[in-house]
Structures are given as C-alpha cells and as structure tokens.
Amino acid sequence: MAGSILAGAWQGRQFIAGRWHAASGEVFENINPAQTEQVLGLYPRGTADDVDAAVAAARRSFDAWRRTSRIRRGELFMNLANLIRRDTDQLAEVLARENGKVLNEARAEIIEGLHMVEYVFGTARQPVGQVVESEIAGKDLYVRRKPRGVVAVITPWNFPFAVPLWMLGPSLLEGNTTVFKPSEETPEIGQRLVQLFEEAGFPPGTINLVHGTGEVAGDALARHADVDVVAFTGSYEVGAHIRQLAAAADHKTCALELGSKSAVIVCQDADLRLAVNAALLSAFKTTGQRCVSAGRVLVHRKLLDQFAREFVDQTQRLKFGDPFDPTVFAGPMINGSGVDKVLSYNELARQEQAQVLLDGGRLTGPEHAQGWFLGPFVYVQEHRPAVRTIREEVFGPHVAIVPFDSDEQAVEIYNDTPYGLSMAVITEDYRRWRLYRDECDYGMGYVNLPCIGAEVHLPFGGVKRSGNGQPSAAALVDAVTHKTAFTVNYDRKIIMAQGMSAETSDNTKKSARNNEPH
Ligand code: UN1
Fold first, then answer.
1. Backbone φ and ψ of 23, nearest 5°
2. Ligand 1 binding pocket includes 292 (Cβ within 6 Å)
3. Which of 164, 309, 436, 492 is the one with CA 20 to 30 A from 248?
4. Index of the ligand 1 atom closest to the CA of residue 456
5. Which ligand 1 atom minimizes the distance to the CA of 291?
C-alpha cells in the first residue's frame, strides 16, 4: 500500500445487471494526486469474467430497452438531470479530489455533463429519421435509425464525468445498452455517476459498470464478440490498439477521440491581450491535460518579442497548487508517469536547441510536497524538420511558441503534425480566419477564443491521428445507430424502381398458372 487509507475511503463496487458487487479478487487504490499519501478508495480490478458478465447483462436487457418508447427513455434523463443538479457540489468535490483539477473547473465539468443529459432529454421528442420521395408514386420511403446493440464506453481520467455522459447519453437514448469502464485514475466519480443512473430509474442491465485497467478490462471489452460499438477517448496509441482488437472481432464500430497537438495561432493583426489570454487558457487550464490543450502557440514574427514577454510574465503569475484553494489556477498532474513524460519532453526541448523562456520544473513549495506538481515550461522553437517537441503530444504544462512569417506558412506549420483536433486563430481580419478555417486540419475551430471549451451539442472529434471520423458528444448518435432504408408499397401490384420489369418469367407464369385452381 502506498499510503494511509482515508477514514471513510470508498469501497468500490462494480454494477452488473442492476446489482452492486464488492471486489472478490484483486483491488487497486484510488490516489489523490495532490496528496499522494491519501488513498481515497479501493476498487475491484475488473477481470475478463466481469466483462463477460457485464456484456451478457447488457445484451439481455437490450430488447426490452430498445422497445421502450424513445420518449420514456428520454424522461429517465430528465430524472438524471435533476439528480445531477441536486448533487453538483458534492460531485465537483469528488472530481477535484481524485482528478486534481481545481474546484471551479470540476464544477464546470459537472455542468458540462449536465448539459449533455439535458440535451439528450430535449432531443427525445424531436423528429427522428427522414421521409424521402420515391421514383414510384405508390411507394413511401423512410430513413430510420436503429440502435446497434451493446456499447462499450471506455473513458479517460481528464474528463471523467462529462466524457462518459457524452457517450452514455446518446447511446442509451437511441436504445442501446452499455458497459462503462471508467479510468482507473478516477473510479469514484464514475461509480457515483452510475449510482445516479440507477437512482434515476434506468432498468437493470441498461448501464453496467466494470472497474479496472485498460490492459485487462478495456481490452476484454474491445475484443468482446458481443459488443457492437466501442466508444473510447484516450491516447492515439491505445486507440490504435483498440481499433485493431475491434476489427479482429467482426469489425465492430469504433468512435475514437485521441491525442492532439492543438494550437493557438496569433496573426500579425491580433489583439495582443486577447491573444495572450487565449494562449494561457489553452496551454495551462487543467494543467495542460486536455486532449485539446495547446501544445503550440504559433506567433507572427512581428509580434514575437512582445507576445513572448507578456505570455511569460503572465504565466509566472499563475498559481499551481491545491485544487481546493480558490486562488489556484491549476492543480497537479494526474500521476508520476505524467510528470516523468513532461519532464522528459522539457529535456528533449533543450536537446533540440529550444530557446527556453521559463522552466517551472517540479514545484517545491510546502503545498506541493505531497503531490504531482509541475510548473509551466515555455520555449521558442523554430519550425524545422524532425523537431519532435513541436509535433508530439506532451499532455502537461509544456508549450512551444513557434514563429511564422506569413499566414500561408502558419497553415503549413499548423498542419505539420500527425494530429488534427483543435485550432484557434486570433485575428481581426475576416479574410484571414477564413483561410485558416478552410486550410487547417481540425475537428474544432475557434476565432478569437482559446482552442479549448467546446459545447456538448456540437460534434467533438478530430482528423488524422486525433480520431477516426466518428465525433463524440451529440454527434455520437451516428456511431451508436445504423441508418435503415424502409420502403412501403401502397399499390396492389409491384412496380420496381429503376424501370425494371416486374413481370415474372414465362416459366414462372406458367407454373403460377398451373397452380391456379381449376
Ligand atoms: C478533453 O479534453 O478530453 O472543449 C475534452 C473542451 C471541453 C472538453 C475537453 N469541453 O475543452
């Protein structure tokens, strides 16, 4: 055991077929990243057998759930919304404690989850499908969506409340049943969410919870023959692995939200104050641990010195520390390997001849002694071939300022990474932002804003290594349903499309005549 078990520490449970199960085998610890000697709870380490049981429960409840009226399914989300409203403060505290994001950000995340639930409820009574004209006057054509079946929801620690709801919400509304595996870094908020689903009245088996690691429980879900959709948010490497497992198990649908090297682009006509503010929020909110965090700020060379001065000056004033201190801007890193990864990229930046402007390193104040605290690392790096730090995802408070000389060059630099998730351009010129809008590879684009802060009723996803073209949040409906074409004939005779003859062959006619009563 790494440290002391907190009094009242949670005994984690898995939820299968409407029943809570305590650990019967191995357990893992939930550690507070700001106070690593604090063990917040012990959780069952889900096994392939647990996954089998959860998937079987989801499968068994699928038919009854898909036959339940869509509006009734939606109403349960109304109940859920009320429960999330009731518990917002408590949920925010749980989230801030086990994830380390500051309390007001944790609260904003609970609200983001609530927005998804409200959106799902609101869409339950919206028209679904399409009525389409036929070539043939006597036919009606419909496009209708059907649920795919069992959806596996495998989610990250950085948005452990909102991202699961982006996936569970559309999946359940459309009539799928689900198996949810939260990140092992943030199991409590995942379990609390499932408790609220239960309290809201979702029938047994519609939502099942398995805890544990990606290697065991995650892989077992991704390769499970009876899972129809895998919705995953996490790193490119794990996403690529999940896609392979899923493809080997009968080409199930995947919706993958993966890494990025997102950027804020500061044009020569930018409002400098706004640009600095947008860059600070994009680079350091959530300690740089959002998939959309800016790992790069591209700055027109004309503004470079001024921007860099202002940016560094203001970065130095940001407080990194206790997530429950209201004067703190950002909390700790999630764990020791996150810290090591950032430190190794800081080192790599020096090896690649970066001009280092600020190196926060490991923070050493008394409030930092027990946590995974890192300060911001800021450097200027020219866009050159093979420089890794301006192309690879770091996932922490590590940001490159990359100078450019023309908008065309900025587009080229922006696109020169394997990723394409989020892009913000700071300009007063509508012709400029149109160029970036059309020429950059991204899933979310912003003008005069940070490159973080998406809303739930928009598609959320990216291109290249940032995703597989199946956006999440509201747009997840496309991954968790399949579209069916449904044709009804009102004529007494058959008239085929494409002008094809509906006459049966002479032989058939003869035999048909032979069958006629004499
Ligand atoms: C993520 O970083 O994994 O757009 C999700 C945003 C948030 C969601 C981020 N609404 O920054």
1. -65, 135
2. yes
3. 164
4. 10
5. 2
CA of 53 to the centre of ligand 1 (A): 32
Report the separation in Å between the CA atom of 293 and the middle of ligand 1, taken as the mean of its atom positions.
8
Ligand 1 centroid to 37 CA: how many Å? 29
Q: Could you give the residue numbers annotated as active site?
A: 257, 291
Question: pLDDT digit of tens for each residue in the chain (518 aa)?
Answer: 445 555 567 889 999 999 999 988 999 999 999 999 999 999 999 999 999 999 999 999 999 999 999 999 999 999 999 999 999 999 999 999 999 999 999 999 999 999 999 999 999 999 999 999 999 999 999 999 999 999 999 999 999 999 999 999 999 999 999 999 999 999 999 999 999 999 999 999 999 999 999 999 999 999 999 999 999 999 999 999 999 999 999 878 999 999 999 999 999 999 999 999 999 999 999 999 999 999 999 999 999 999 999 999 999 999 999 999 999 999 999 999 999 999 999 999 999 999 999 999 999 999 999 999 999 999 999 999 999 999 999 999 999 999 999 999 999 999 999 999 999 999 999 999 999 999 999 999 999 999 999 999 999 999 999 999 999 999 999 999 999 999 999 999 999 999 999 988 655 555 444 444 44
Residue of 442, 460, 466 to mutate, ligand 1, most atoms within 8 A of C-beta: 460
453 C-beta closer than 6 A to ligand 1: yes
| Closest ligand 1 atom to Cα of 292 | 2
- For the record, the structure tokens of 357 come out as 């402007």
Whether the model clears a pTM of 0.70, i.e. scores above it, the answer is yes
Distance separating alpha carbons of residues 256 and 235, to the nearest angstrom? 9
Pocket-testing residue among 236, 285, 290, ligand 1, by greatest number of atoms within 8 A of Cβ: 290
The structure tokens listed for 316 are 């130095």
- Answer for the pair 12, 188: CB distance below 8 angstroms, yes or no: yes
Walk across the sheet containing 150-154 and list its strands. Answer: 19-22, 13-16, 207-209, 177-181, 150-154, 229-233, 253-257
Letter for the amino acid at 84?
I
Q: Is 452 in the pocket of ligand 1 (CB under 6 A)?
A: yes
Q: Ligand 1 center to residue 69 CA distance, Å?
A: 32
Residue 397 · residue 321 · CB < 8 Å: no
Domains of the chain with bracketed CATH: 4-258+472-482 (3.40.605.10), 262-455 (3.40.309.10)
Q: Which of 159, 183, 262, 286 to mutate to test the pocket of ligand 1 (most atoms within 8 A of CB)?
A: 159
**Rounded distance from Cα 453 to ligand 1 centre (Å):** 6
- Closest by Cα among 288, 268, 300, 431 to 372: 288
Instruction: Give DSSP secondary structure letters for 339-378.
Output: HHHHHHHHHHHHHTT-EEEEE--B--SGGGTTS--B--EE
Compute the distance between CA of residue 503 and CA of residue 121 in angstroms, rounded to an integer: 49
C-alpha 271/C-alpha 291 separation (Å) is: 26
